Amino acid sequence: MKAWQFSKELIENAEPQILHTPPHNWDLFSKMEKNEDERVRGWWKGKTIGTGQPECLIVAMIQSLESKGYFVEPAERLIQEGLDAYEVNDMSKLFRVTARIKYLTSTADINPDAPYWQFDMFKSYEQYAKAVEFPDTQEVDEQSIEYENQIKDAWLGKIIGSQLGSALEGYTTDQIIELLGDVRGYVRQPISLTNDITYELAFLRCFEEKGYGINALQIGDEWVSSIPYGIDAEDLALRSINLGYYPPESGSRNNPFSEWVGAQMRGAICGMVAPGDSKEAARLAWMDGSVSHDNNGILGEVFNAVMASLAFIESNPRIILQSAVEMIPANSEYYYVVNTVLKWCKEENTQWKNVWNACEKMLEKCHWSHVYPNAAAEVVALWFGNGDFDETMHIIAMAGREVDCNAAQVGTILGIAIGKHNIADHWKAPLKNEVTTYVRGMKHLTIPQLAERTVEAVKQAVRY
Predict the structure, then answer these.
(1) Mean pLDDT of 403-424
(2) Residue 294 CB burial class (10 angstroms; 0-12, 13-18, ≥19)
(3) pLDDT tens-digit profile of 210-227?
(4) Cα gap 446→452, rounded to integer Å
(5) pTM for this predicted structure
(6) How far apart are CA 95 and CA 169, in angstroms?
């Protein structure tokens, strides 16, 4: 049926009526106003999910744009005006200031002297792949019990990391030391609820249907059909897709958070379905990352994807880490960060805190959700943890920042590489078998179910 035909029939088949009371949806307008008020207020004052730490997304957006090499002073001049409007609940002014800041950030001028522009921009997988050399693929028997066990251990490590980190999200190292001292286990009883695997579940469901022929547009479709809401980069990407802007535009178009940790936190699933094949893991990660991220944000997902893939064929985390760094383009800013941190790790070799102190200084202008400090935390934890699950979790916890995202990815990599028999009971015993998410159709799962679905999807997929 043509659209005009449908519209014509709809109006012609409607029954005329005279309403003697206000329209039934009049109350809806009032609810919509309240929802929009809360949405805009949320840009100015909010709290992190795991810890309730305060955050101000509108300021973080400006900060992130400066990290990407833009002049932000015109937007910064409106911050105090917006905060004042928030405090007196002047919603008319708050809407106006919020919109104007978003306009100023979306039209900001490039700062040609910013370090960001000294590096190459990577806008496609093809461009990325030409800039690196992948190691030869090593075959992994995806029909074997060994692979099934590694996938089970991957999900176990992921959930452990998520549960450890969710109680520490948004804290600095000094705050963690002051509040908790040395963290060497869960700081609160693990719960089944997790939001850290949301986008990995969407990828898995899309992969179950499409296999290795999966593409970014299909992943975008899965997002809008499965995920009711997002945060920062993912929120803006979901809104863009719903407006008809699909990847890669959804990840780059007016998305100041496109180099935050959101893509990096979901890379491991791409390596889990491409064991021993880092090139394929990178390809899948690039497509998935492009839904909500751009350039260095996508490279963060590639980084974790290739580490997870390599973990199936190499048990030494230091070797995995060094190989993954080599698969990041040497003329990218992401490479500069992770390679610098890796170099410091090798030079120091014994005291992780010394290296982490240097990382904090180098990256002090980055928001705590930016991809760089969190990538640095992973490098430090994997190097100095050196295959010891307890020590690696200790370091990734003490580094702070996006601990849940980082620990979940590192936990996945170690789960694959060293296996659950090298993970102490104090990590495994408190876990509930259930996993509760907000993904439509996947709200209640168990860890064995996640592993079974992953293995079955890989067994059924056809390699391209």
Answers:
(1) 98
(2) buried
(3) 999 999 999 999 999 999
(4) 10
(5) 0.95
(6) 29
Specify whether the backbone of 349 is left (phi greater than 0), alpha (psi in -120 to 50) or beta: left
Q: Are 167 and 180 in contact (CB under 8 A)?
A: no
pLDDT of 231-252, one tens digit each? 999 999 999 999 999 999 999 9
HSE, CB side, 13 Å, CA atoms: give it for residue 426: 9
pLDDT band at 158 (very low <50, low <70, confident <90, very high): very high
| Mean pLDDT to the nearest integer, 84-93 | 97
Whole-Å CA distances, 148 to 153, 200, 311, 419? 9, 18, 14, 11
Q: Tokens in use for 352? A: 């992780």
CA dist list (Å): 133 to 74, 323, 325, 336, 424? 42, 10, 11, 17, 37
pLDDT at 351: 94
Q: Which pair of tokens denotes residue 32? A: 């919509």
Q: Using CA atoms, how far apart are residues 411 and 211, in angstroms rounded to an integer?
A: 25
Cross-strand pairs, 193: 436
Measure the CA–CA gap between 259 and 372, rounded to whole angstroms.
9
Q: How far apart are CA 301 and CA 142, in angstroms?
A: 23
Q: Does a cis peptide bond (omega within 30 degrees of 0) precede residue 430?
A: no
